[in-house]
Structure formats: C-alpha cells, structure tokens
Design brief:
Blueprint: H1 2-17, H2 28-33, H3 54-66, H4 85-90, H5 107-112, H6 132-143, H7 159-166, H8 177-184, H9 191-199, E1 203-206, E2 214-217, H10 224-234, E3 239-243, H11 251-257, E4 265-267, H12 275-278, E5 289-291, H13 299-303, E6 313-315, H14 323-333, E7 337-339, E8 342-346, E9 352-356
Helix pairs in contact: 3-6, 10-11
Length: 361
C-alpha cells in the first residue's frame, strides 16, 4: 500500500508540477549529497549581444523559466508544449499561439495580459509571473516575425527594447550609481554596537532584513551633533539614510555626516546648518536627496554642492537661495530638481521655466 501510495503521489506531482518537481527547488547542499548537478543561479549573461540568436539566447530561456513547467515533453497542459520550436509552432488545443508579425493577435500574448485570476491567464496564478521586461521581449520577438534563427542585430528595436536588451549583457546597464550601491550592499556591522544604541533609545535600524544598510532618525531631545560623531565612528560604511530634521543639528554635526561615505538621503530641514557646514558634504558621492528647507543657506552654499555627482533632489524653500541661484545651479550641476516652493522645469536647451505653485509650510 505504501509503495502504491508513494508511486501514485509521485506520478500526480509530476503531472501537476513537472517531472523535476522533487529536485527543482532542492537546496544545493542536498543536491550535492544526492549527486544531482547544481545549476548556476540567476540569468546567464550574453557576452556579444548583437550576435546573440534572439530565440535561442533570449526567448527560449524566458519560456524555460516561466512556461515550460506546464508545457514540456512530459506535460502538455491544454495540449500545448513549448520546449521546442516545433512544439511552439504546432500550438495547443485551441490552435496556434503565435501570430508572427503581430504580438497583439498572438494567443500567447493575449493570455499573458489576462487578469491573473482568469482561468486562461498564463502563467497560472500561483506560478512565477513574467516580468514587464520579459513580456516586452516576447512581444518584440513576435512583432519582428518570431524568427528562430535571426540575431539581435538583424531585428529592428526601439529605444525601450534596446534599454531592456542591454540588461541581458550588463544587469546594471540602466541603474544609477546609487541603485547599484544599494543593490550590492555593504560590509556587516557590529550587532552589539547597534543593540547598544537601540538600548539608549536611539532610532537606528536596518533598511531591510536582507542587507546591512542602516537608517538613523534623531530627534530634538537627542544630542544630535555628539551622536552623529559617534555613529560616524561606529557605522561609517553602513548608514545610508539620515533624518535629523527639526533638531539641534549644527555645522559640527554636518562634519560627522560627511563621514557617512555611502549616504544617499539626508533630511536636515529646519536646523541651524549654514553655508559653511555644507562644505563637509562635498565627499558624499552617493548623496541623492538633500532637504535643507527652513535653513539659512544661500546661493553661496550651493557652490559646495555643485560637484556631487548623484544629487538629484534638493529641497531649499524658505531659505536664502534665490530663483536665479537655483537656475544657475541646475544648469551647472545638471540636477533634475531644485525645489524652492516653485516648479522649476529644465528645458532641453538648458533654459529654465519657473512657475509659482502654492506651498504650505
């Protein structure tokens, strides 16, 4: 009875989840003990993108990852197999799934775009879904004729497709330096030191459970300048978000902030910092967002920030910064936005259109 039950269970599992369901998600250590080859994790990068065969190197791997567990040599849900060229062209019980030259008319794409709760949605609810980039590549391949032998260089691609294709040879191709930094992570910190700060009532914690990045929030009751000095000694690499708004922060505290070399966000609004203090931030090459609302900084202070390569948002309303100074700063530093309580839009010619908007303090 046990043998029959085990055999029936395995057969049923194979029908439902594919023939490799027992080993597909087995931990690598168990695979090694069982003598099962350990597969490489993550997508295989394409070394020469132009010479890559679109179906073989791009489309087939997507189907292997998202479709073939239900449509393979041993399991053909809906009488459809997708593991070979011949199977794809044959289609399933409802006929062809590809309409070369028209992704919109292809049954494959129609089903991908159905609501996830729909019975005909592909992949079915509960399975790993196609990403937006994967759908875009499938649509591009079909619109370009669904060729099984043409190379990337032989197909037409718009800018959106080209942008996605670049990630197949370089996963960081379209990421900013800050995104790359946060994704790659940083060195571990001393857990005992972190717990000691928490015991003091200091609001310091991880950004997430999966990495070593830390965020710090200090309040008016805290000895902000002194605390920042200690934190800069204990966690100079790990602190990436700092919130010291409406505190007793001074230029002395900004000197400590300048030692958080991986800082990406700083909120220092409604504090006593000055132009002189901003000189300490000159080395923060990953600083992306800086809020100085309600401080006494001036156009002179902007000069100290002009060399920051990744600064994208500067909030400086209710300060001594002028519209003319902000305009000049944006032209020279190529910032996306300086918020003065005005909407400031960069035009391609680097002229600036300034439109006042209502701002509540």
């Amino acid at each position: 009875m046990m043998l029959l039950l085990g055999g029936a269970g395995h057969y049923g599992g194979s029908l439902t989840h594919g023939s490799t369901f027992l080993t597909q998600y087995m931990p690598d250590t168990m695979k090694k003990l069982a003598g099962i080859p350990v597969e490489e994790k993550g997508p295989k990068l394409i070394e020469n993108l132009d010479e890559a065969v679109v179906y073989v190197d791009i489309i087939h791997p997507i189907m292997e990852q998202r479709c073939n567990s239900c449509h393979n040599a041993s399991k053909k849900k809906g009488d459809l197999q997708m593991h070979t060229k011949e199977a794809l062209l044959k289609g399933g019980e409802n006929g062809a799934i590809l309409e070369p030259g028209s992704a919109a008319e292809s049954e494959l794409i129609k089903r991908v775009h159905l609501e996830e709760n729909h019975d005909d949605h592909m992949p079915p609810k509960g399975k790993s879904q196609l990403t937006d980039d994967q759908v875009l590549l499938l649509e591009w391949w079909i619109n370009e004729g669904a060729s099984f032998d043409k190379k990337v260089a032989e197909l037409q691609a718009d800018e959106e497709v080209k942008t996605v294709l670049l990630t197949l040879s370089d996963p960081n191709a379209n990421k900013s330096a800050v995104e790359i930094l946060l994704a790659e992570g940083t060195t571990p910190f001393d857990e005992e030191k972190l717990n000691a700060y928490v015991s003091e009532g200091i609001a310091i914690k991880r950004l997430s459970n999966e990495d070593n990045w830390l965020q710090v929030t200090l309040y008016r009751k805290d000895s902000v300048d002194a605390l920042l000095g200690r934190l800069a000694t204990d966690f100079p690499d790990q602190i990436t978000w700092v919130d010291v708004k409406d505190t007793q922060l001074s230029d002395v505290g900004l000197e400590a902030v300048g030692k958080f070399k991986n800082l990406t966000r700083l909120r220092a609004e409604k504090t006593a910092v000055t132009d002189a203090g901003l000189t300490h931030l000159a080395g923060l090459s990953f600083l992306e967002s800086l809020n100085l609302y309600g401080t006494k900084i001036t156009d002179t202070g902007l000069d100290h920030l002009s060399k920051l390569p990744n600064l994208r948002r500067l909030y400086a309303w209710d300060t001594e910064v002028s519209k003319e100074g902000a305009t000049k700063f944006m032209e020279e530093a190529s910032l996306i936005e300086v918020n003065l309580g005005y909407e400031v839009n960069m035009i391609d010619s680097l002229t600036v259109e300034v439109k006042p908007i209502a701002v509540s303090n």
